[in-house]
Design a protein that fits this description.
Radius of gyration of chain B: 19 Å
Strand content of chain A: over 45%
Oligomer: heterodimer
Number of strands of chain A: 35
Largest sheet of chain A: 22 strands, antiparallel, barrel
Number of strands of chain B: 27
Helix content of chain A: under 10%
Strand order of the largest sheet of chain B: 3-2-1-27
Radius of gyration of chain A: 23 Å
Largest interface: A-B, 62 and 60 residues
Distance between the termini of chain A: 57 Å
Distance between the termini of chain B: 23 Å
Number of helices of chain A: 2
Helix content of chain B: under 10%
Shape of chain B: globular
């Protein structure tokens, strides 16, 4: 039969950010930097935490775009998109759902527009290559999506409705009910868009871009006694997208992605020590239709079972984590045949605070039936020179296993591929005052054995371990509170990255900008607030000879919110205020100026 | 021809996707493309046409975009000259751009009844036969579009087996090599120009990739399958006048996958494993000696004592055209073209 190449193939520093406590101007998603070591994790690295309020926008791409300077490569609004942290590719950032890696086993990436975020309690972005606790495949960084059961004796029902340009509607309902013993939370999200946006500067409209999706998550926890708690977490999503034509192409193709994630867990222990045992099932299924009017399609899917235990000793000055993980993945489909991967991993993390000095020593060894991956490790340190000044230095190694597509794709899959390897260094400094926080991090990632698909004597494409990528850069995170009174809040946040990512020929890696800038300026007065968010992305080269590139772009968004009371919140958003033409992939432009109205209503 | 770059559609968001935005060194006057060579640059988006003057002194890239002020489209595949016009098959844009072959000025866009147009053979001065893949998820909707080149409209579609690719014609028949699109096929369809129906089907080896006509013989070069269970390449000499009987089958080894059969002045040329081989059309066995070594041919075409070879390099940067002298088997010159230079047409 004819072999289709489904798009399905194509198919994100050590500051701690915390959430400001609710108050009358809490309409703002106030993300503040945490100035001390967290009690439960002796942090030596750099991460950013977003809480539930920020996660109501439709997809992971929307959330990351709104809250960080992280570069996202996307085939257009709502389309297949991948994260790029520290110059690395989408398959070098691992996305974890409640601690379980969910990057596709088929293509190694998480499509950010296939993850709906409203059901999560917390999103954590951690840049850098230290991922011992979480697994491998994260030389660029980690995104953690988490549900945190609580026993706060809470009840609420929340509805968030969003109506936007291009007949876009997104609604999510969240219900949480808990008492001292029992916790439950449900979230249902539905989303659709005609997505037929006019393309700025061109007499063209985005074609074949309509999408819809539904997502359901259900979370339960039961406290048996002070020592024992069991919990169940689940997420089901089905996203149905036509795949936008390029500006000059004609396409009628369609991609559906179905994800089913389940986790059953048992937590044993108290404050000083804990044991967590999780059994998880992660299923993914991609169906690609060449013609959206036809039922004819190809399927590729995988299911992964993970059984893991993490044992933690939590003392004030030292912590010990020991983990054991068993994994089994089956991938099958029209493109990859039917293949299995079995793995066992062991990790140990020792964290220790000696006066002003904190260090983490991490080691992880994985055994895979088809490979012998290297032992990976990380050594992370922080030294608090002054109450306002901390120095950090980290070194870590990582690897990434070839994906099922890399190994088995018809045609071209190469079963002889080796894991990609990386070595990362990071040096950072944090300056923290009451109203001013600054973090500056330098990183350097050396990656070898990088897998690249190359034409095999122009007969067929096949992946080989040939590339070497060096990525170095500087990251700046800055937050300045300008005014804080009972009625007024004003602050400014800036993230800026300069990264230089080069291949073995010392040329900038394509599809990877060198300059990124994000800024968020907030002003709140009583029930009103105004946010200005801007992004600058530098030149993106698209040919390895650097002769061709996408132009730099500067995008500005305005959010105006009104929250008369704690129950209701109304927000209007203007995106791409200046109606600028921009794209992250050639001939895959984003919309010009567009509008959104968000209404949030809470009953409790 | 090679459509493998189509595969890349998303394979590698991170490293391997092509684009446009050309910055050219202008060496000719735009709009003056008489007496030269056109090469199609097959990039996934913003494909382009390069021009090389007959004396190799001038190169100009992106000429369609330059002359017409618009993008050519996605994954242009081939260019065929017919009368005063050049027909550019733009596969992923489902269209043919018809331009004046001497100025590149656009005359008309043919966008109806064309789904993934690949190659065109012009016959009788007013008919074009165009191999089309149709829906790439459907093995049974491939067709040859029959085009009236006088008014540039598709007259009819002739349903054909999977994967029609190269198409050539003489004064009686059009010959369609079914390479099998992204799959595999092993036949050559013969279309009678009078009835415009398939009159014969010739069974050959896997992936008939290129064809040439010499007198009353049709030569077909099959690549064989190169991935998975390999099948051998083969060269066929077929007698058109004797009911398309196979006069001789030249067999390659199972691991050998020849490509790019070309003909000039009684000699056949083909490409195998970075080498060019030459044989006489009367030979009864494959040549044992390498004719030109270290030739990075993505595509090649022989004409008037010269061999024109395109080198697609890493498929994500500008490729070259290399010209060899067939009498001495030496390189004459090389010039930089666009990204993934493929199909070649001679306007002289």
């Amino acid at each position: 039969m004819r072999k289709i190449f489904p798009l399905a193939l194509i198919i994100i520093n050590s500051f701690a950010f915390g959430q400001k406590k609710e108050n009358f101007y809490s309409v703002l998603d106030t993300v503040l930097l945490q100035s001390r070591f967290n009690k439960t994790t002796l942090q030596t690295y750099n991460h950013k935490v977003l809480k539930q309020k920020s996660l109501k926008v439709a997809s992971l791409e929307n959330v990351l775009h709104q809250h960080s300077d992280i570069f996202i490569r996307s085939y257009g609004r709502g389309m297949v998109s991948g994260i790029s942290m520290r110059g690395m590719g989408a398959s070098h950032t691992q996305v974890l759902w409640n601690g379980i890696p969910i990057n596709s086993k088929l293509n190694g990436q998480t499509d950010l527009n296939s993850i709906y975020t409203s059901g999560f309690d917390q999103l954590t972005i951690k840049k850098g290559g230290s991922s011992v606790i979480y697994g491998s495949g994260a030389s660029g960084g980690i995104v953690l999506l988490t549900n945190n059961p609580n026993f706060n004796q809470n009840f609420y029902l929340n509805n968030h409705l969003s109506i936007g340009s291009y007949k876009t509607i997104n609604n999510n309902v969240t219900m949480e009910l808990s008492n001292k013993k029992f916790y439950s939370k449900f979230n249902f999200q539905a989303n659709q868009s005609q997505n037929n946006y006019p393309i700025p500067l061109y007499d063209k409209t985005n074609k074949n871009g309509a999408y819809s999706g539904i997502n359901f998550s259900g979370n339960f926890a039961y406290r048996i006694n002070t020592l024992n708690q069991i919990y169940f977490k689940s997420q089901q999503s089905f996203i149905d997208r036509n795949l936008s034509s390029s500006m000059y192409g004609v396409s009628s193709d369609r991609l559906t992605t179905q994800d089913n994630r389940y986790l059953l867990g048992w937590k044993l222990g108290k404050k000083k020590w804990q044991s967590r045992t999780d059994l998880a099932l992660i299923k993914e299924k991609f169906s690609y239709y060449f013609d959206n009017n036809s039922a004819r399609h190809t399927n590729n899917q995988s299911q992964t079972w993970v059984l893991k235990n993490k044992w933690s000793l939590l003392q004030k000055k030292h912590q010990l984590y020991i983990g054991n993980e068993l994994g089994y993945t089956q991938g099958k489909g029209d493109g990859i045949g039917n293949h299995q991967r079995k793995s066992y991993a062991f990790f140990v993390v020792w964290a220790h605070q000696i006066n002003r000095f904190t260090y983490h020593a991490n080691l992880r060894k994985e055994f895979v039936n088809t490979y012998a991956p290297p032992i990976i490790g990380a050594f992370e340190t922080a030294y608090k020179l002054h109450k306002n000044y901390t120095l950090r230095a980290n070194i870590s190694t990582n690897y990434r296993l070839p994906t099922f597509n890399d190994l088995y794709w018809t045609m071209g899959g190469n079963p002889d591929l080796k894991p990609e390897k990386s070595l990362s260094y990071e040096l950072g400094q944090d300056v923290v005052f009451k109203n001013f926080k600054l973090q500056l991090t330098a990183f350097y990632i050396q990656s070898t054995n990088m897998i690249r698909w190359t034409p095999n004597n122009s007969l067929f494409w096949s992946p080989k371990n040939i590339d070497r990528v060096d990525s170095k850069g500087l990251e700046l995170q800055l937050q300045q509170k300008l005014i804080e009174t009972k009625k007024i809040l004003a602050d400014i946040s800036v993230n800026a990255t300069y990264q230089h990512t080069i291949d073995q020929n010392n040329l900038q890696v394509i599809y990877t900008p060198q300059q990124l800038l994000w800024t968020n300026i907030k002003f709140a007065y009583q029930h009103f607030s105004l946010q200005y968010i801007a992004h600058y992305t530098g030149k993106i080269y698209t040919s390895t000879s650097l002769s061709q590139f996408l132009d730099p772009y500067f995008i500005q968004n305005i959010h105006l919110q009104y929250q008369p009371n704690k129950k209701i919140q109304v927000e209007t958003v203007v995106q791409n205020l200046t109606n600028t033409f921009y794209q992250t992939m050639p001939d895959r432009p984003f919309p010009g100026r567009n509008y959104q109205l968000n209404i949030n209503y809470k009953i409790n | 021809m090679k459509k493998i770059n189509v595969l890349l559609t998303g394979l590698l968001i991170s490293s391997l996707i092509f684009t446009g935005c050309k910055k050219d060194v202008k060496t000719t006057e735009p709009g003056d493309y008489e007496n030269g060579i056109f090469v199609v640059n097959e990039t996934m988006t913003n494909s382009s046409i390069s021009y090389l003057s007959e004396d190799y002194s001038a190169v100009e890239n992106g000429i369609f975009n330059k002359v017409n002020g618009e993008s050519l489209g996605d994954q242009a595949q081939s260019i065929t000259l017919n009368g005063d016009n050049a027909y550019i098959m733009v596969s992923n844009s489902n269209k043919i751009e018809v331009v004046d072959k001497n100025t590149m000025e656009k005359k008309v866009t043919i966008a109806s009844q064309l789904i993934k147009p690949r190659y065109m053979a012009a016959v009788d001065g007013n008919i074009g036969f165009i191999s089309c893949w149709g829906d790439t998820g459907d093995d049974n909707d491939d067709y040859v579009a029959i085009l009236n080149t006088t008014n540039n409209s598709v007259i009819s579609q002739l349903s054909v087996p999977l994967g029609p690719e190269k198409i050539i014609a003489d004064d009686r028949y059009a010959y369609v090599a079914h390479k099998g699109a992204w799959g595999n096929n092993n036949i050559v369809s013969v279309i009678d120009l009078g009835s415009r129906q398939i009159s014969n089907t010739i069974q050959v080896s896997d992936k008939p990739e290129s064809m040439v006509l010499e007198n009353h013989f049709l030569w077909v070069l099959c690549t064989g399958t190169a991935w998975g269970t390999e099948t051998a390449g083969a060269l066929y000499k077929i007698d058109i006048d004797n009911n398309f009987s196979i006069v001789q089958q030249f067999q390659f080894a199972v691991t050998q996958h020849p490509q790019n059969l070309s003909y000039d002045n009684g000699k056949l040329y083909y490409y195998l494993d970075n080498q060019v081989f030459k044989m006489d059309s009367n030979d009864t066995s494959l040549p044992s000696n390498v004719f030109i070594d270290n030739v990075p041919a993505y595509n090649m075409s022989a004409k008037d004592g010269k061999l024109y070879v395109t080198d697609a390099k890493n498929y994500t940067s500008e490729g070259d055209i290399i010209i060899y002298d067939l009498s001495t088997a030496t390189e004459i010159t090389r010039k930089t073209l666009g990204i993934i230079p493929g199909d070649i047409s001679f306007n002289f």
